[in-house]
Amino acid sequence: MKRKIVSSFLLIFVCTTLVFSQERFSLASFNIQVFGQSKASKPDIISEIASIIRYFDLIAIQEIRDKDETAIHVLMDAINSGGEEYALIVGPRLGRTNSKEQYAFMYKTSMFQSVGNPLTWVDENDLFEREPFLCMFQMKEGNFDFVLMNIHTKPDDANNEIVLLPQVIEFASKVFNEPDVLCLGDWNADGAYFKESDYAIVFPDEKYLWIIPNEADTTIAEKSNTYDRMAGTISMQEDWTGDWGVLRFDELPSFIIKGLKPQNISDHYPVWAVFNSFNDLD
């Protein structure tokens, strides 16, 4: 039986610890199912998504589907109307069909700055439906710098794409000259798409840090699945506090008051982890 890490812990932890100190920060990943013009045009939904994102200091977003590429900016306006300023880094539209997606990173400008240029992994053999999107970040206060690798695998090809992720992690480490690389996103790493027992083979724990474990349940579905993951190079172990969770946004007061249904927001919950800002030794 898998378990859901409920939102109440996150609310208490973030509000009492992170807001008053930059010694730690929260990092999250969220597949906002088919995020485009439809959701952006609904005030209750866009405000709730913005509220969810503001719980985190830096967040990776998957499944932006908008040929006009304007919906994400509507969301950013909603996020920044709530107080502290966030910046946006958005990748190119990717996919083999007309239904293309974009990745994005959103982060507090008071805490982070991007380093160098973000890049999309060059997929010469078309092995990924949506190639990983890479970006390096550095703390403004603290010594932690790291590369984030955003990924949304194609469900039917998840097994083939997941086994390639260590190769892309190694590439990211070399191209950014940075040992700390964290791969996060909707991996579809469970259920009919991927055998959980293979996770330890692809990401052996002597080389990689597992943050979202197999027992987590990251979707709103009745059946428990750990589709959304975070795994980093082992060098990140010194930076991770050990805290992680799944934000049950359907338990948030603002969500309940609005009378929304989980599927109005997404079929995935955000996954999150907390890192130290000053422990980095590389």
Description:
Mean pLDDT is 93; it is low at 1-8. This protein has 9 helices and 12 strands. It has a 6-stranded mixed β-sheet. A hairpin with a 5-residue loop joins strand 6 (133-139) and strand 7 (145-152). Helix 3 (43-53) crosses helix 4. The chain has a single domain (7-274), classed as Endonuclease/exonuclease/phosphatase (Deoxyribonuclease I, Chain A), CATH 3.60.10. It starts with 6 loop residues before the first helix and ends in a 6-residue tail after the last strand. By secondary structure, the protein is an alpha+beta fold.
Outline, from the CA principal axes?
Answer: globular
Instruction: Calculate the terminal CA-CA distance, rounded to whole Å.
Output: 39 Å
- The CATH topology, please? Deoxyribonuclease I, Chain A
Integer average pLDDT: 93
What is the alpha-carbon Rg in Å?
A: 17 Å
How many DSSP E strands?
12
Instruction: Specify the CATH architecture.
Output: 4-Layer Sandwich
Number of helices: 9
The structural domain count equals 1
Q: Which residues sit in consecutive blocks of at least 5 with pLDDT less than 50?
A: 1-8
The largest beta-sheet arranges its strands as: 3-4-2-1-12-11
Structural class: alpha+beta
Largest sheet: 6 strands, mixed
CATH superfamily: Endonuclease/exonuclease/phosphatase
Q: Summarize the amount of helix as a percent range.
A: 10-25%
Strand-and-helix sequence, N→C? HEHHEHEEEEEHHEHEEEHHE
Could you name the CATH class? Alpha Beta
In short:
With 282 residues, the chain is of the alpha+beta class.
